[in-house]
Amino acid sequence: MEIYSLILKRSRQGQKQLAVLVDPDKHEISDFGPLAKKLASYPIDYFLIGGSLLSKDLLDECLKAFKEQTDIPLIIFPGGVMQVNARADALLFLSLISGRNADLLIGKHVESVPYILKADLEAISTGYILVNGGNMTTAQYISNTLPVPADKPEIAALTAKAGEMLGMKLMYLDAGSGAHQSVPLDMIRKVRSMIDTPLMVGGGIKSAAEAKEKLDAGADLIVLGTALERNIDLLEEMIEVFR
């Protein structure tokens, strides 16, 4: 089954989903095998592989290690045109609809098409909405865009609806890696009330209780990253929420 079809099917059935974000830049090559093996022992739905800036060029090594250890779908979370790799199962075809940087709305996408076609990757059209998490994140700095203010849920909701009207199949509210505050619950509720597409929420989620609040507010899929880098054992508590 295509990855998007799987996400959509689970969302419509009310099944909450968990994705773990692995940033290759935050690891060494020797880390990938043991990390993949440990994470593969948990009932995770998807791995997001990538980051806003990959300076070490370890994407291929990371994907290779995870492919050897698990059958859990690998989805590239790209920060640039060159983060396309045939080892993955799919790629989030992100359009940064919260910003006004034309390159990240459509420009880089045009450049990436030949690479995606060559890699034969499923491209999942995703409306990417950056939310102010209380500090400047790498995603905000690299994208050169302003995030949606955390106290303006109506802006996020209308932005998400516009993305859906444009034909985007997935919405992603992201406070950014290492955000001080996660996406507000009121914003998640407002966006959920406006769209029919599956809703991903990530950035700044630090506890199982916080993840449950996001799910109860309307998120279909939670993305965890930085919190697990600091304490991978937190996954035990997170899994209980999804059970």
Number of helices: 10
The low-pLDDT segments are none
Helix content: 40-55%
Number of DSSP strand runs = 8
Label the overall shape: globular
CATH class: Alpha Beta
Any idea what the CATH superfamily is called? FMN-linked oxidoreductases
Structural class: alpha/beta
Number of domains: 1
Written description of the protein model:
The protein has ten helices and eight strands. It is an alpha/beta fold and 243 residues long. The protein has one domain: FMN-linked oxidoreductases (TIM Barrel, Alpha-Beta Barrel), CATH 3.20.20.390. An eight-stranded parallel beta barrel has the order 1-2-3-4-5-6-7-8, surrounded by six helices. Helix 7 links the parallel strand 6 and strand 7. The longest helix is centred in the middle third of the chain and has 18 residues. The protein is globular and about 45 Å long. The model has no long low-confidence stretch (mean pLDDT 95).
